[in-house]
Amino acid sequence: MSHACKILQASAENIDLCVDLLRDGAVLGMPTETVYGLAGNALNEESVRKIFEVKGRPLLDPLIVHFSSIEQAEEHVEFNERARALAAQFWPGALTLVLPKKDTISDLVTAGLPSVAVRVPGHPIFRNLLERLDFPLAAPSANPFGYVSPTLAEHVAATLGDRILAVIDGGACEHGVESTIADLRNPNAPMILRPGPLSAEQLGMQNVEVELKQPSNKSAHPAPGMLTLHYSPNTPITLFRHGERPSCFQKSEAVLYNTKPAANKLAENTFWLSESGDLTEIAHNLFMLIQKLDVRGYTQLQVERAEDVDIGIAVNDRLSRAAAKR
Ligand code: TXA
Ligand code: MG
Question: How far apart are the CA of 188 and the centre of ligand 1, in A?
Fold first, then answer.
């Protein structure tokens, strides 16, 4: 654990400081409504390179670019009518659109793809920063490549703290899982590439079965959040079916339920994501609880799958990847 970087409160003075640092090309940790991001000037190749280095992320895995408004996004990507309608309805918010890029976006950001992933985030601190800057911010989740996404400033400080100057503290992220990514290149056949807080139904799209398949290491990952092994804590994870109990477990293992089990006396290694079983709350707490348990020395985390609806689909997607064998 390294805590070399500063966790900054979002005071006016600190925001001024971060604006200056970002203008100078720094990469900083900052809160979004989904998970914490590792942000840098998307139009400055040196900053973009730094993002990949800090995360230890392969250059084949393209970044999401964040804008202050649809108008700013239109300067850098080719919208179609369907994408524009979705943006108007869901931005600012947890929806990322994949669209053809314009020449202003470098191949480094997109891993050589002719498309780029874009969103206007809803978090007030992130929005405030974007409004003060005259460039968009590229920002992947602020975790070391392959590890669980951060939902607290402390997670960022603990894992990347020796490689960045600061992380702005925005408290716990509202959604707790990353944005929904939709490929809108063909407006007549939009595709969900990564399930997230906004469901396919809400977006008026089909839910595609996301395949757990290891992409090639030679070409840009087609839907790279889609690496089989991803979101993985150090403690091995196994999953059990929603509404059931693990078939057997040891004292050395932790058991993680969706809902607080109804029993008078619960074993010390029993945990739950929500008192009531509310899916939004389950998603909000998922990465937070996994990271908390990851440093407690359990031999294994046995985790209950969520109900496969709404944001539960995103929860199950992240859990399946976290549980994939190394
Ligand atoms: O909620 C979020 O989306 C967070 C916050 C910080 O905004 N960001 C995030 O970024 O989750 P990251 O880098 O961890 O995941 C972005 C995903 C990657 O899997 C990437 O491969 C995919 O978006 N992606 C980026 N550009 C793409 C493109 N042109 N086509 C398809 N997928 C793309
Ligand atoms: Mg990520």
Answer: 22
Taking the CA of residue 115 as reference, the ligand 1 atom at the shortest distance is 29
**Residue from 96, 107, 145, 231 to probe ligand 1 pocket by mutation (most atoms less than 8 Å from CB):** 96
Using an 8 Å Cβ cutoff, are 77 and 100 in contact? yes
For every residue of 68-122, DSSP letters joined together read SSHHHHHTTB---HHHHHHHHHH-SSSEEEEEEB-TTS-HHHHTT-SEEEEE---
CATH topology of domain 6-194: DHBP synthase (3.90.870)
221 lines ligand 1 (CB under 6 A): yes
Cβ–Cβ < 8 Å for 37, 29: yes
Q: CB of 174 closer than 6 A to ligand 1? A: no
CA 299 to ligand 1 center in whole angstroms:
31
Among protein residues, the one with the nearest Cα to ligand 1's atom 29 is: 116
Residue 181 Cα: closest atom of ligand 1 = 23
| Residues having C-beta closer than 5 Å to ion ligand 2 | 141
Domain boundaries of the chain, sorted by first residue:
6-194, 237-322
pLDDT by residue for the chain (326 residues), tens only, comes to 555 689 999 999 999 999 999 999 999 999 999 999 999 999 999 999 999 999 999 999 999 999 999 999 999 999 999 999 999 999 999 999 999 999 999 999 999 999 999 999 999 999 999 999 999 999 999 999 999 999 999 999 999 999 999 999 999 999 999 999 999 999 999 999 999 999 999 999 977 655 554 544 555 655 544 455 577 899 999 999 999 999 888 999 999 999 999 988 899 999 999 999 999 999 999 999 999 999 999 999 999 999 999 999 999 999 999 998 76
